[in-house]
Amino acid sequence: MASVTADDVLMLIKKSLEESDERFTRRLDESGKEFTRRLDESTRRLDESDERFTRRLDESGKEFDRRLEESDSRFMRNLEESSRRAEREMKELSKQIGGLGNRFGDWAEAYFNKRTIDKFCELGYKFTKSGRLEFKDDSGDCFAEADIWMENGEYVMVVEVKSDLQKKHIDEHLERIHKIREYMD
Known about the structure:
The chain is mainly alpha-helical. The protein is 72% helix and 12% strand.
């Protein structure tokens, strides 16, 4: 058998290291290529996923905008209808309040008619007729009204009833009396 020298052992170790280095380099190269392939594949999938996500997001945004527009339209229609309804209700309420005012006025006139006659009786004036009266001209048009009209053949009293007396009401009543005096005997 031949003897193995230190140079032979070194040569074997060197050859083994070179083979090992070649295998390592080959495996590293293969691993790098596999890593790059997998990275490329992952990047491609991520890009596709990103594209799908972006499309879905765009579609969702468009759908959201469409629904928001529909919602705004419905809201505006409801608001307009509510405004019309509120306006109708306000008109009705105004009518009802006006009716209450008229009823209060009618009640006040009836109440003060009796109280006014009684008061003048206490002062020595006895009126035989009283009531509400409209004064009409020859053509039948009303030119003045009296909330309370009292007469006894000698005296005539024209009374205007107000719940909130103001100077303009007094001026209007004096004008009314003037018209009645001009037209009536």
